[in-house]
């Protein structure tokens, strides 16, 4: 049996404030969802290990037993999963699934729980809560299922909500409705929300602060306006540069050169983005890249951002 472990999330340190939406951005495989499941304790202990601390109200979640975590999950910290069809139980009516958290965490009577379920369904924008509560997940649309997931997440009024790609696979109109709903609920409850996404449009719409991840590390962190106006890390700038611009006529999309390294081949020293910007001199990178605060609340990893420029060859942009 191979007992070798590779750090999927490496040296990540972040904080979440009350009444704040913190967006975590990065491409697939950068460690966003691993970070979320680690916070919730939803990982296979046979294949995953956590080193470090996950602090919540003077408790280290990483050190809690499964029974102790169950007292926190759903009540104080909850999660909205990116695929509600696989997250919901196909054999249970959705009303019963929402009620489960109330049974576990509250002493409400059966009648009070049923009324709370209907109130929650109305709160997440479902027009006929009595009818929908009796339906099974497969009978609902993708947008409706995601609303059910949100109702489950907020049933006990948690202080922290982790939303992992909550608008994936939804059409643009439904995406906007779900985002508006999250913002509205956040304002009502004062909960802190960790929004995990790869969609910069979603980030611009709702986030207060942004953390950009690449290859398991935080490479940039800043308030939303600062990041969009003054992105600094080469990876962040490349992400913005790869977004199609309606005001520019071009038959080519700007792409980021190279590929994300696998966990096995991930460099554990030096700048992890260096291979994708080979025209930047090696001496521009730190041997042990650190996060540097370049302006209030704006952190950038490595010093290579000072030397970065977009490479142009034969009139074509490669980054």
Regions with pLDDT < 50 over 5+ consecutive residues? 314-319
CATH class of the largest domain: Alpha Beta
Question: What is the N-to-C order of secondary-structure elements (H for helix, E for strand)?
Answer: EHEEHEHHHHHEHEHEEHHEEEE
| Mean pLDDT across residues | 89
**Strand count:** 12
Strand content: 15-25%
Determine the CATH superfamily of the largest domain: P-loop containing nucleotide triphosphate hydrolases
CATH level 3 topology of the largest domain: Rossmann fold
Question: What is the strand arrangement across the widest sheet?
Answer: 4-5-6-1-7-8-10-9
Spatial gap, N to C terminus: 41 Å
Domain module count: 2
Count of DSSP-assigned helices: 11
Give the helix proportion (percent range): 25-40%
User: Would you identify the CATH architecture of the largest domain?
Assistant: 3-Layer(aba) Sandwich
Structural class: alpha/beta
Membrane topology: Peripheral membrane protein
Keywords: ATP-binding, Cell membrane, Membrane, Nucleotide-binding, Transport
Domain ABC transporter: 1-240
Pfam families: ABC_tran, oligo_HPY
Q: Which features characterize this protein?
A:
alpha/beta, cell membrane, 319 residues, single chain, ATP-binding, two-stranded antiparallel sheet, 12 strands, eight-stranded mixed beta sheet, ABC transporter ATP-binding protein, Rossmann fold, ABC_Ni/Peptide_Import
